[in-house]
Amino acid sequence: MKTLIKNGRVITAVDDYYADVLVEDERIVLIGESLAHLEPNVDKIIDAKDRYVIPGGIDAHTHMDMPFGGTTSADDFETGTFAAAHGGTTTIIDFAIQAKGQSLYTALDTWHEKAAGKAAIDYGFHMITTDLPRERISEMKKLIHDEGVTSFKMFMAYPGVLLVDDATIFRGMSAAGEEGGLICMHAENGIVIDEIVRYAIEKGHTAPKYHALTRPTQAEAEGVNRAIRLAEMAGSPVYIVHLSCHDALKRVKEARDEGIPAFAETCPQYLFLDYTAYEKAGFEGAKYVMTPALREKWNQDELWTGLRMNDLQVVSTDHCPFCFKDQKQLGKDDFSKIPNGGPGVEHRMNLIFNGGVVGNRITLNRFVEITSTAAAKIFGLFPRKGTIAVGSDADIVIFDPNKKVTISAETHHMRVDYSCYEGMEVQGVAETVLSRGKVVIENCKYVGRKGDGKFQKRSRVQHHIKESAYAKLNH
Ligand code: URP
Ligand code: ZN
Ligand code: ZN
After folding, report:
1. How far lies 314's CA from each of 151, 309, 425, 459, in Å?
2. How close is the Cα of 160 to the center of ligand 2, in Å?
3. Interval between CA 340 and ligand 3 midpoint (Å)
4. Using CA atoms, how far apart are residues 462 and 378, in angstroms rounded to an integer?
5. Residue 187 within any structural domain of the chain
6. What is the CATH number of the domain that holds 300?
7. pTM for the model
8. How far apart are CA 284 and CA 298, in angstroms?
9. What is d(CA 439, CA 452) in angstroms, rounded to the nearest whole number?
């Protein structure tokens, strides 16, 4: 199958030029100023005049079909990836979860079963590790080397559920550092937060806004700092997930200025929404109960600066939807029982284009970098994914930079009954989307099939790291 994308403006993290792109089967095979002479020999022609031709988005943080907070996230791999495709995302990296005491392989098998034959776009897995005794380190290494699962999420939050202690984090980081893996950290001091939560409940503060009022920015900053310093001791890179505020960003910036390989993502909710969402009437605020919580509005400018200056490298969604009607209600009488998480996988690309490029906060190249290329590089998918280049997978978005759309739960494709951005008009739409050469969205309509998406093994990534505390003992 040969597809010619003609007349488009090709934008990558570093390039910006007009060219035709020839796709053969799953990959890009030729890019040239004019490939019109090939037209008689191709099966499909896509006219990308007045459109950008950009790499498919990579959302490095999603939770499909995830048991959490006494329920399960509302999108599974079928509905969630279908929605992602509509928004121009062609790869997600989702989180498998190891139950305490469980083999990492059992957890991986469970997530393979959840996703197999369902996904509309490609997917990979990080592994959430909830306990990692020395005996299990060999499994972690095998996941990195044999299974293409090269990143692991650990939690400093959610005591009694997902939290792991510092020794476990250090052990995991040491192994990751040695093997070219990466620890992704949910960096918030959950022990202190839970103490504040207990105090709030005792005082009868049960409304959704207390979710935010019990999670101070310092708890996140402390977690970020601890994660980075543990990584420094372990001789490992670290990736901070869903960074939400200036206090936490300062810690990442300090570390990067010291030459420590600390990376961080933020999410659209922290760039576009703020604390006042929790003050909406009635129980509405529950829609925005996610962790970390939404912060005071002034943090948003700091996060945009972080994205511009590369102290933040990635925008992911932390897509973890729960329906308002029958899932968020679990916390009707107690904010701490509201399932934490919100929907987002569908609108990341147009929100960031609209707020970033149209809003004059980032360049077009940076838009591509933070929505696709950087995640591909950090998580071992580059150059197979994350760019438009000969030999790369033909994960391509024909993006209309002028078209406007109004976000609404009435029209979105995520299986959740509300949108955090209800009524917001955004400029910039993924019009046609190719996933490994196959058109899955054509003129904004889904034309793919479930099962088109395939599991992607990811490579190890090496970083310049200082000598670890363990290595010093081996001299
Ligand atoms: O509120 C959130 N973020 N839910 C998903 C789980 C997590 O911590 O990423
Ligand atoms: Zn998290
Ligand atoms: Zn998450």
Report:
1. 15, 12, 23, 18
2. 15
3. 9
4. 10
5. yes
6. 3.20.20.140
7. 0.98
8. 22
9. 10
Extract the tokens encoding 236: 């490992």
Q: Which of 76, 280, 261, 246 is nearest to 183 (CA)?
A: 261
Residue range 293-329, pLDDT digits in tens: 999 999 999 999 999 999 999 999 999 999 999 999 9
State the Cα angle at 408 between 403 and 412, rounded to 5°: 85
d(CA 461, CA 432): 31
Q: Is 137 exposed, middle or buried (0-12, 13-18, 19+ CB in 10 A)?
A: middle
Ligand 2 centre and the CA of 162: distance in Å?
A: 10
pLDDT reading at 464 higher than 80:
no
How many residues would you count in the chain?
A: 475
Please tell me the residue having the least CA distance from ligand 1 atom 2.
341
Helices (H) and strands (E) in the chain, counts: 14, 19
Residue 397 covered by a domain:
no
Domain holding 216, by residue range, is 56-378
Residue 436 counted as domain residue: no
> Tokens standing for 422?
């209800």
**Binding-site residues, ligand 1, Cβ < 6 A:** 63, 186, 242, 290-291, 318, 320, 340-341
Give the model's pLDDT for residue 474: 84
Task: Tell me: pLDDT of 61 over 90.
Answer: yes
CA distance 218 to 470: 30
| Token couple for 265 | 């993502």
Spatial separation of the C-alpha atoms in residues 350 and 51, rounded to whole Å: 14
- Residue 2 domain-assigned? no
Phi, psi of 395 (to 5 degrees): -95, 100
CA angle 411, 412, 416 (to 5 degrees): 115
| Cα–Cα dist 356/271, whole Å | 10
The predicted structure's pLDDT at residue 434: 98
Joined tokens for residue 81: 């990836």
Here the tokens at position 179 are: 């093997």
Of 190, 240, 253, the residue nearest 216 (C-alpha):
190
Cα torsion angle, 381, 166, 242, 11, sign: negative
Number of domains in the chain: 1
- 19-45, pLDDT tens digit by residue? 999 999 999 999 999 999 999 999 999
Separation of CA 321 and ligand 1 centre (Å): 10
Q: Pocket of ligand 1, candidates 61, 318, 416: which has the most ligand atoms within 8 Å of its Cβ, to mutate?
A: 318
Helix (H) or strand (E) segment spanning residue 202: helix 190-202
Average pLDDT over residues 253-267: 98
pLDDT band for position 387 (cuts 50, 70, 90): very high
